[in-house]
Write a structure and sequence with these properties.
744 residues; alpha+beta; six-stranded mixed sheet; 26 helices; 20 strands
């Protein structure tokens, strides 16, 4: 195929020096340098050595220094340049200039509480008062910074609303809670907020210093942004940062006070007035849900924090550990609701009950205290703290079931050794989309005594690859393997970008069959395995699980971790991290031409290949439509890769042409790609679907060498799928696409 699209002239010819030329350049006599050049050299070296600037930052600094010199030459008032630099020569002055000219939102130091410590040294009777603080970023100013961006306004308040996709859940706004929320009585275009909290140790200390600098971080994001934009880390904003020990002692009230007060104003009939670009705009909104891992959400929700040993470990239902092994349908369980939860809180705060009686009520109900979230009357504690797919499945149920299955297959049935398994993991022919998260080696002690020690991304890879590795060693009646395949299908549906409403009832049955069979096989349903039974309700309430999972928020931690390493000063870490985070937000939304496109509204990106003369395209490929589309162009511009709505397309990936119920899906292989203005045209090689391979959770296909053209935006499913080449056969996996083939 590549020969048929041979290049007639290259796009650009990169000049490169030979090794001899480079050696000659290095061995020539040293030229004399001016004092200015020497000072600039020392300046750059000091930035790199003392202040840990990366090597890639050196060219950037040089180019900006050149620009400053050009501005200086063009300026008539050279004396004013010194005054300008004096206004920027300290952190306080720099912050002031950022606030005045770049919409920098300054974090506010807010007291959390105080404690008294007595001097225990002999002969000392002094008592010292210690104040604890957190850093809070005002929500109103953050919204003003956000809405100054024209791209954001166009996405949240579009002039041409595309409407919802009938029969599908595509975002949180399609969920029942957003659709039926009372905020619609106040505004026809309300904003829906999501907040997230997590505890992070950025300093990574050893020994007695563990947890000394552990931080509690709270972020927020707007659910009104399109799903492909919400995957961008730049759309995540900071609520506040505090030491974890202070939050454990004093609670979340102070850290979340400004955010909750602003939400109450947003919910009111008058709304929140913002000053954007010298104009006033009034917006309305509400808090839709609170995301986080199980421990964090139990803490903020007022439930027993650790569900490992709790009698009633679920915040969605009141179920005992014994019943978790027997009940696998949500309709069979006593669910929590707002009225019941309020009654429990009234009992816990009843002055006539003893502490022992209150402890008994807390043990029976799983409720510890009144949540700070009750400051927002419209927020339902029992339904708006969704279970997290990343922690509960990728790092919980799926990891556990793979471990149990491998333990049985290798230790009991002895179908292979751990060396065989790891050899096949290392030598497997991974499609490109999995190569950045190839699984780690699986050792015997991981399977027998611990966990598989895979990241969430590596677990996703194993989800699709492990069936190909194990299938040749098993027959189609192996019940342990079949139950694992059921969980693979459940996980794939939950992580789909769009979920059919009709699939939710089917998903409930899949989960029921899987959990019942898992208990028969392994005799224990863990809390995270039980949480699967509530997954269909989370889908109904908030749309696809990736709308409420924590993976993108945890990706935001990486910046703060790097900032911690660079600062090398841990005296007031909440202030340092909050300030660094807000400076990054200022850079994202205010600096340069790219600030206008910070969230990626222009979702069509491509890496160009070669210019192809249309006369060299063989007409036997049935690409007449391609020639018609480019009728006014002499040359066609080929593309090496295309990114559309964060989906990455390249040659030899598969697209879905058609998928009718009860019929095999119709696939096509991307043979070539061309860019014409703002359109991407695929030359597709049709694939014939032979069968669905139950053991590999994949469709077996073969090439037909029947070619046709298709514009990317005309595809009904604008999503690529990986092609597996295994033992001379080709398989397509419907990765993150709502499709199930029951393998029970």
């Amino acid at each position: 195929m590549s020969e048929q699209f041979a290049s007639s002239q290259p796009m650009n010819e990169a000049s490169s020096s030979s090794d001899d030329e480079i050696l000659h350049e290095c061995t020539t006599s040293v030229e004399e340098v001016s004092d200015f050049q020497l000072a600039a050299l020392k300046f750059l070296v000091r930035l790199e050595d003392q202040f840990h600037m990366s090597q890639s930052g050196v060219p950037y600094v040089c180019s900006k220094m050149q620009e400053l010199l050009e501005h200086y030459k063009k300026s008539d008032e050279h004396g004013s340049q010194r005054v300008i630099l004096e206004r920027l020569n300290s952190e306080r002055k720099l912050r002031k200039q950022l606030e005045q000219h770049c919409s920098f939102v300054r974090p506010i130091k807010t007291p959390v509480g105080s404690s008294f410590e007595e001097d225990t040294r002999p002969g000392q009777e002094n008592v010292s008062k210690t104040e604890s603080y957190c850093m809070v970023v005002p929500l109103k100013q953050s919204l003003e910074q956000l809405f100054k961006n024209r791209e954001v306004n166009e996405m949240i308040f579009p002039t041409d609303d595309p409407g919802k996709k009938p029969g599908y859940l595509c975002s949180s706004l399609d969920g029942e809670i957003a659709m039926k929320h009372a905020i619609h009585k106040v505004s026809n275009k309300p904003l829906f907020f999501q907040i997230y909290t997590d505890d992070c140790e950025f300093v990574n200390p050893l020994g007695s210093h563990v947890k000394v600098h552990k931080m509690t971080i709270v972020y927020w994001s707007l659910l009104n942004l399109p799903p492909h934009v919400r995957s961008s880390l730049k759309q995540i904003f900071l609520v506040g940062i505090a030491y974890q020990t202070d939050i454990k002692h004093y609670g979340f009230s102070t850290l979340l006070e400004d955010f909750f007060d602003t939400i109450l104003v947003l919910e009111s009939h008058s709304g929140l007035s913002l000053s954007v670009g010298g104009k006033e705009m009034v917006i309305h909104g509400t808090l839709l849900n609170f995301a986080g891992d199980g421990l964090a959400l139990n803490l903020v929700g007022g439930f027993k924090e650790s569900f490992g040993f709790a009698s009633h470990p679920c915040r969605n239902c009141i179920i005992s550990r014994a019943d978790m092994n027997l009940l696998h349908l949500e309709c069979e369980m006593p669910l929590r609701n707002a009225l019941q939860h309020k009654a429990v809180l009234e009992q816990l705060h009843c002055p006539n009950l003893t502490q022992k009686e209150k402890a008994t009520i807390s043990t029976q109900s799983g409720v510890v205290c009144r949540s700070v979230l009750y400051q927002i009357p419209s927020f339902d504690i029992t339904s708006c703290l969704p279970q997290d797919t990343m922690h509960n499945i990728l790092e919980g149920s799926l990891d556990l079931e793979m471990k149990e299955m491998l333990n049985f297959l290798i230790e009991v049935q002895k179908i292979m050794t751990y060396e065989d398994l790891n050899e096949r993991i290392q030598k497997f022919n991974y499609p490109n989309c999995f190569k950045d998260a190839m699984p780690s080696l699986i050792e015997r002690h991981h399977v027998v005594d611990g966990n598989l020690r895979q990241s969430a991304a590596q677990t996703i890879t194993l989800l699709f690859v492990l069936p190909f590795i194990l299938a040749p060693y098993l027959d189609d009646e192996n019940i342990h393997f079949k139950n694992f395949l059921l969980l693979c299908q459940i996980t794939n549906v939950m992580l789909s970008f769009e979920v059919k409403i009709s699939s939710i009832a089917y998903l409930k049955n899949l989960i029921m069959v899987h959990n019942a069979r898992y208990y028969d096989l392994y005799k224990n349903i863990t809390p995270k395995m039980h949480f699967l039974t509530h997954a269909p309700t989370v889908l109904t309430n908030f749309g696809p699980s990736r709308e409420t999972w924590t993976m993108r928020y945890e990706g935001r931690h990486a910046f703060l971790g790097q900032a911690t390493l660079n600062c090398r000063n841990f005296k007031n870490l909440p202030y340092t991290l909050a300030y660094k985070f807000q400076v990054r937000k200022c850079v994202d939304f205010e600096f340069g031409d790219e600030a206008a496109k910070v969230l990626g509204a222009n979702t069509f990106k491509y890496k160009l290949g070669n210019l192809v003369d249309k006369r060299l395209i063989k007409m036997g490929l049935a690409v007449g439509r391609l020639l018609d589309i480019a009728s006014d162009e002499k040359f066609l511009q080929s593309a090496v890769s295309v990114t559309y709505k964060n989906f990455f397309f390249e040659q030899n990936v598969v697209v879905l042409l058609e998928h009718e119920p009860e019929l095999f899906p119709q696939f096509a292989l991307i043979a070539a790609m061309f860019v014409l203005n703002d359109r991407c045209v695929f030359v597709l090689n049709n694939l014939e679907t032979i069968t669905f391979d139950n053991m590999r959770n994949a469709f077996e296909v073969k090439e037909t060498n029947l070619f046709h053209c298709k514009v990317l935006k005309e595809l009904s499913v604008q999503q690529p799928f990986p092609l597996f080449l295994v033992h001379g056969k080709r398989y397509v996996v419907l990765k993150f696409y709502d499709h199930c083939e029951f393998v029970g």
